[in-house]
Structure formats: C-alpha cells, structure tokens
Write a structure and sequence with these properties.
This protein has 329 residues and is α/β, with parallel strands linked by helices. It has ten helices and eleven strands. It has a five-stranded mixed beta sheet with strand order 1-3-2-4-5. The chain has a four-stranded parallel beta sheet with strand order 9-8-10-11, sandwiched between helices. It binds zinc ion.
Length: 329
C-alpha cells in the first residue's frame, strides 16, 4: 500500500476554512493573491498570506515563495507586517516533506514575478536547478547553508528545522537574507527575526527542562525526521520504521524493528500525523509498545505560531510516552 493519508482531523478543518475564505474573497484557488488585505489576526488558512497592511505606502511589492510548510511558517514570521510583502508556499501545505515530491507546472508558476525563493536546502528540494534555470531573476536562499548538518551515509539529513536550534539558525539566516535583499525594510526583518528567535529560544529552554529526566533514552520514529531533535535533547534514535517516506518498509525491516523494540524494552513508538501508521501498528502489535504521534511540523495550520504549538504538543507527547515505563537501561 502506497497511499498516504492524513490521520489528523485538523487538516480537513483547515481546508474547509480555505474554501470559505476563497468563496468570501471571490478569488480562485491557486491564483497568488498578491497583496490582498490580510485577514485580521492570523490563521485563516489561505497559505498565501499578505503580511503587509500598508503596501501602498511603498509602491514596491516583494513576493516571497517558500518551498514547503516549515519554510513558509518561518517566512510569515520574519516578513510579518513588512509593507508590500506577501508570502506563499510552492508545494501545497499538505505535501509534507519534499523527499519524493515532483514539482508541478502549477507550483512552478508561483515563482513567476516572485523576488525570493526560500528553500531548506541540504537536499530537501530536488528542483533547485530547475528553479534557477527557469526563473533566473528569483533569488534563492537555502536556509541550511552554513549550519552544522548531520551526515547520513555521505549526504546531509535535511530535517534541520525539527531541532529547535536548527529552526533558530534558519530563522536567523532568513532574517539576514531578507534584510540584505530588501534594505529599505532591513530593520523590520531583523526585529521580526529577533522576536521569533526569542520565542523559539524560550521554547527550547522549556523543552530541554521537560526532557532532561529522559536524557539518553531511546526512541523509535517513523521517518528520518528527528536526528536534530534527538541531538538537541539528548535522546537516541534506536530505529526508524520507514526510511523512505511513502514507501512501506520491507518485512525484514519490520522484523528488525521488532527485534530492536524487544531488545531495548521500549514502551513507545512514534508515528507521524502525515503518514499511514500501518507499519508502526504491526510493530506495536508484535511488541506491545504503544504508538504516539510525533509531528515534524511539515504540515499544519496557516498560523505564525504553528511551529511553536506543534513543538509544545511534541513535548507533552514525549513526556507522557517516556514516563510511561522507566527505561531498562
Ligand atoms: Zn522528511
């Protein structure tokens, strides 16, 4: 079975909001809204947010396109309230990680007239060359450039944002890049980046404190999204159930995961809301381990605070799961 499905119900709520917003504003889905006035507050779910409220003051519009959801959430934070700036996502917000993602013509069209393309880099976007050759005037920033990347068999693990320190470094990279690209608003980008970074730092402190009792504990995750997170909080990833997202693990891989769970005496497995938990269910059935959901923040609501909320939920989940049974080692 190769079909992915959403386990979390919140996405359907999100899409009905999109539909309502599209009807109310009379704009067709897929058409970049340019500089439509922002909805009051945040999180109406259009995923093409105008973060400006007085764009007419400058006369010059800056369109930022983010490659996928986590980059989009960073961009709407750093560009928040900056006159004339809009942010949208290239890949639809339900895409999840871009590992096996083929960019569509409609996606690429969003780069027409865009100024800046915000990519994760580290191999996550396989279409960067295509973007560069088709839209040479679009400036691409790879937010993982210059960071301490975890190597996996000769290539970097791209899930940098899943560690809070990685997210902080990426937001700082984005703040610097936008300040340099749009110098008139440099101060605003810097202030936004600093404000978001301070909230992320507070989150990191809370998580470090909450997870301190579990340092050295082993966890089993669903795909290869959590090494940065684990490094940050002193957890060990004993096994990964599905290395290639979207492809079911082989019987031998499942058997070896079952072996690991038994030998370590593990009580918890961590699936992800974006993928079918069927392999995890098999392992759980065979071992008696319980399945929890750990979210790598690759899908979610259209809200600047989404990443913070997802990580708070991850913290609560981990505390519950790791407290469930003391580790045998
Ligand atoms: Zn991934």
């Amino acid at each position: 079975m190769k079909i992915r499905f959403k386990v979390s119900g919140r996405h359907s709520v999100f899409f009905s909001l999109v539909a309502v917003a599209a009807i109310l504003s009379g704009c067709a889905k897929g058409g970049p809204s340019g500089l439509t006035p922002p909805a009051s507050g945040s999180g109406t779910g259009t995923m093409a947010t105008s973060v400006s409220d007085n764009s007419s003051a400058t006369g010059k519009n800056l369109r930022i396109v983010a490659s996928f959801y986590p980059m989009y959430i960073m961009a709407i934070n750093v560009a928040r309230g900056v006159p004339g700036v809009s942010v949208e996502t290239l890949a639809p917000p339900t895409t999840g990680c871009l590992h096996d993602y083929s960019v569509t013509t409609a996606d690429m069209k969003k780069l027409e007239g865009a100024s800046i393309f915000v990519a994760n880099g580290a191999g996550m976007e396989t279409f960067l060359e295509k973007v560069a050759s088709r839209y040479p005037s679009v400036r691409t920033v790879r937010l993982s450039d210059g960071l301490d990347l975890i190597d996996e068999k000769g290539s970097p693990n791209p899930h940098v944002w899943v560690g809070i320190s990685g997210a902080i470094a990426q937001v700082e990279n984005l703040g610097r890049f936008l300040a340099a690209s749009d110098p008139v608003h440099a101060e605003a980008y810097r202030a936004n980046a600093a404000a978001y970074v301070s909230r992320l730092s507070a989150l990191r402190d809370r998580m470090a404190a909450g997870l301190a009792p579990y340092k050295g504990r082993e966890i089993i995750t669903f795909h290869e999204a959590f090494p940065y997170f684990a490094r940050e909080f002193g957890l060990k990833i004993a096994a990964v159930i599905e290395r290639e997202p979207g492809s079911e693990p082989s019987a031998r891989e499942v058997a070896s995961t079952i072996e690991t769970v038994r030998s370590v005496g593990m009580a918890a497995l961590f699936a992800e809301p974006q993928y079918s938990p069927s392999a995890a269910q098999t392992v759980a059935r065979e071992t008696g381990a319980k399945i929890y959901s750990l979210d790598p923040a690759v899908t979610g609501p259209d809200s600047p605070d989404a990443y913070l909320a997802i990580m708070e939920a991850n913290l609560a989940t981990l505390k519950e799961a790791l407290a469930a049974r003391p580790s045998s080692n």
